[in-house]
Design brief:
The strands form 3 sheets. A 3-stranded mixed β-sheet has the order 1-2-3. A 3-stranded mixed β-sheet has the order 4-5-6. The chain is mainly alpha-helical and 436 residues long. The N and C termini lie far apart (66 Å). The chain is 56% helix and 9% strand. It has a domain of 246 residues. The longest helix is centred in the middle third of the chain and has 28 residues.
């Protein structure tokens, strides 16, 4: 069903309890949508979409409430500063004698408080500043009625309560207007490049290339790995026929004592050819179009070829980073002579510490290339299909196996495993024949 009710737009937002320190309230306000934080009677995490579903709303806190609280706390200090600026009393403290007159005829100064304003702020809690008369939007309200509620409350966002007055989340005026115009987008969008075009998903709904394209993506990665190994074989065989057979079977380093340098050279050659096959195939352009389309979606830009083309080719959530790094590790396992504990630890540390930065380099230099207009249009088509599905089914929930399929990596991984088993079996058989 399309977005028609306020409850469909209730989103997760930072929440506090009455005993939450004011400083943490301020930090949650910084991250809130619309400058309002809900104060709940309890927070009860569970696996549902809204983890506060069993909590009750006891108040709200806005930016104005914070401003009023800080003004009250800092008022005495400002009064002292104002008196000092008027030139009365300097730095001396003067006590009243009880009848309104002051010793030595000096002007009065307010005595220093027992603690500083900052200490007072740290002691304040959410319950000290929250509004207890809380405007809210019932979940069953239409979007038009939700807009009227915002007009009356004059706030940027409001809590949404169900028919039992349980807290569901927050809704903003921008949420309502975006839904009314059909521009609500998923909180997060991922995707993959396939030989059949760009494929995009929010984890449940999908758009673009059919699922079989994901399997083909994994298969193509395995094919590149195999073709790269063929290149290594022909190079090694041109130098020494025995080396060729050993390189093809993946036993080059294990077969020669003291052959570390030779194994390392073939490792580097295999890795370079493996990565270059990303760069000089159409899939690299589709990969760039996928990233650029997701960037444009996340930045709220109109999906035109001109706008998408301006977006970066690298994306921090790129799954190809992991697959490319896994491929390079597989190359290393094939060629390097021994899997010592130090080597394994080094690989794990490198993957943990540098995979994102290394992944950006891989994307720019190898796994993407400037996309053509046709490839960018494939990404735009996938995004439009996903957005249309999301407007029509904002609460679409799939069973766990289907949800895993909609993540994309599972089908791609299956394709990669099938391809690797197939190609490596053929190569090992060929190596056995050549070594006879």
């Amino acid at each position: 069903m399309p977005f028609t009710l306020a409850g469909q737009l209730a989103g997760r937002a930072p929440v506090v309890q009455a005993d939450t320190p004011l400083g943490l309230v301020a930090e949650n306000l910084r991250a809130s949508n619309g400058g309002v934080v809900a104060v709940l009677d309890r927070v009860t995490p569970d696996k549902t979409q809204n983890f506060e579903r069993s909590a009750r709303l006891v108040g709200i806190i806005t930016q104005d409430d914070l401003a009023n609280a800080s003004a009250r706390v800092f008022a005495p200090q400002r009064e002292r500063e104002a008196v000092a600026l008027n030139g009365h009393g300097g730095n001396s403290l003067v006590q009243s004698n009880g009848d309104g007159n002051y010793q030595n005829g000096e002007a009065p100064l307010v005595q220093a408080p027992p603690q500083s304003p900052l200490e007072t702020l740290r002691e304040l809690k959410a319950g000290d500043v929250m509004r207890v008369e809380v405007p809210f939007v019932p979940a069953q309200f239409s979007l038009a009625n939700a807009l009227l509620t915002f007009d009356r409350a004059n706030l940027g966002s409001l809590p949404v309560l169900d028919e039992s007055n349980r807290y569901l989340g927050m809704i903003s005026r921008a949420d309502v207007l975006s839904a009314l115009t059909g521009n609500i987008r998923p909180a997060s969008v991922g995707g993959m490049a396939t030989p059949l075009g760009v494929w995009l998903t929010d984890g449940v709904l999908v758009g673009g290339a059919p699922p079989f394209g994901l399997f083909l993506s994994g298969l193509s990665i395995a094919a590149r790995y195999a073709l790269a190994q063929l290149v290594v074989y022909f190079v090694a065989r041109s130098l020494n026929p025995t080396w060729g057979a050993l390189a093809l079977s993946g036993r080059l380093g294990l077969a020669y004592e003291g052959g570390t340098l030779l194994s390392t050279l073939f490792f580097m050659l295999h890795s370079l050819v493996f990565l270059l096959m990303f760069r000089f195939t159409p899939l690299a352009g589709v990969h760039a179009a996928e990233h650029q389309t997701v960037h444009a979606l996340e930045r709220g830009l109109p999906l035109t070829v001109e706008n998408v083309r301006k977006m970066p080719r690298a994306h921090p959530r790129c799954g190809t980073n992991l697959m490319a790094i896994a491929g390079i590790i597989a190359v290393g396992v094939t060629h390097l002579p021994a899997l010592s504990p130090d080597w394994i630890l080094g690989v794990l540390l490198f993957t943990f510490l540098a995979w994102r930065s290394f992944g950006d380099v891989l994307q720019i230099m190898f796994t993407t290339r400037p996309a053509s207009d046709r490839q960018i249009q494939s990404g735009i088509k996938a995004a439009n299909e996903l957005m249309s599905a999301y407007q029509a089914q904002p609460f679409a929930v799939s069973r766990s196996p289907l949800k895993l399929l909609n993540r994309g990596m599972l089908l791609a991984g299956v394709g990669a495993i099938v391809g690797q088993v197939l190609f490596l079996s053929l190569f090992n058989a060929l190596a056995f024949y050549l070594s006879r």
